[in-house]
Amino acid sequence: MASEDNQGAREGGGLLRSTGIVGAMTLVSRVLGLIRDIVIAGTFGAGAGADAFFVAFKIPNFLRRLFAEGAFAQAFVPVLSEYRTGRSVDEVRRLINAVSGTLGLTLILLCVVCILAAPLIITLFAPGFHQYPEKLALATTLLQITFPYIFLISMTAFVGSVLNSYGRFAIPAITPVWLNLSMIGAALIMTRWFEEPTLAMAWGVIIAGVTQLVFQLPFIRQIGLMPQPVVDWKHEGVQRILRLMVPALFAVSVTQINLMLDTILASFLPTGSVSWLFYSDRLSELPLGVFGIAIATVILPSLSRKHARDDPRQFSGTMDWALRLVVLIGLPAAVALLALAEPILTTLFQYGALTRLDVVMSAQSLRAYSLGLLGFMLIKVLAPGYFARQDTKTPVSIAVKAMVVNMVLNLILIYPLRHAGLALATSIAAFVNAGLLYAGLHRLGVYRPLEGWRTFLLQMLLANSAMLAFLLVFNAPTESWFAWEWPQRVMRMGGLVVGGGAVYFGVLLLTGVRLRDFRGGAH
Fold this sequence. Notes:
Layout: H1 2-44, H2 48-86, H3 89-116, H4 118-125, H5 133-146, H6 149-165, H7 170-174, H8 177-188, H9 198-222, H10 236-251, H11 254-266, H12 273-308, H13 312-339, H14 341-349, H15 356-371, H16 373-387, H17 393-417, H18 419-443, H19 453-474, H20 478-483, H21 486-510, H22 516-519
């Protein structure tokens, strides 16, 4: 038993280091993403052109999360981990070749069909644009340019999944930097080349897709697994991945589907609503992407190996470790976004074309999204508990229930709260989804909470309450933030972030929380 504990402690430390690496690389990408959004906000604001681009970009981006980072990754990584554990290197190579060829052909056909059907797709995803023919036509053109991105980024995600399975987490995590750099370059340089500036942004997306895929290829070559695509629908591994993918398409990406439903309904609201949701969603996704997705990326291969080794104790311990880490990081992030919505939006985006009204309206939806941030992060950690066991049917029924809740709440809350009601409905549905995922794992005996959760939650309550009090006391009125120039905004925001963080971690330290508690938590 002692040797098992030592092994778990070593793996817990490895998971924490890997999560730190992925989180650090993702943080670089997300910071550049914020700079990208600042540039876009200053260039396009929240007008008709911005609405059209955000819809056109959100569709392939939605499919990327649905297929590449969602269902495909959750189906492919467990199968690849099983091949690594119990089969030869040649069999692993044949699996990678068959998956790359079959996936690539499917994506090419999908892109051709969707480019031809672009007007219909825009009508489906933004039916309210029919009230504005010029916006509808522009969005259709932008979608036809950007749609091949789904092929490029899906193949990038495929290569990244292989690298993650072999413990090469840093390269896939840093790869999105190229998307942000390309779009920043497009906004600052390429917009002057087009009569309609948003066309430059669309071409910037395609340049980013090519760059990201090419960037990863040398690293997969280093581990001797450079894909040689072969279309083989009958390969045993491909068949299993397809069987796992079909239900996972819906289950793992229910949050993204809910966000897309927000966009559909927002297209019927006044101009600017789509953009307000975009800016607030981007900020709520910063902690989700840096920490939630980082933890999920690291634990999926680990959970898959433990399932393949038939080690339920280690499996449950890893789940417990991940859940504690999510609460440790997600709760204060949600509190900070809730308390500092206008100051954060003003500091980051309120320059150039973005108006004070845009900040106020975006803050409403940001607060609504922040209420569900912990739920979003819990989904990212709980879902791998099913997918690592190659169980995609259970999350499907859970996702359907969460989707119904979201749709009903959308229709109820859109009237009194407008775009903020859409965001609030998505947040509530996220907690429904996370709660049902947790209940299912507990009922099946897959996850059993370790001792100490009551004390841990009390420590979280004290630390977050102290941080919230600090932020409320030292924050300035919104009008002051509007009046300040950017250097004063940045300095004041930096002071709030540093001070709030110091209070939070200081209280945790005083109440007995230590970093070493998370190094050995996976046993």
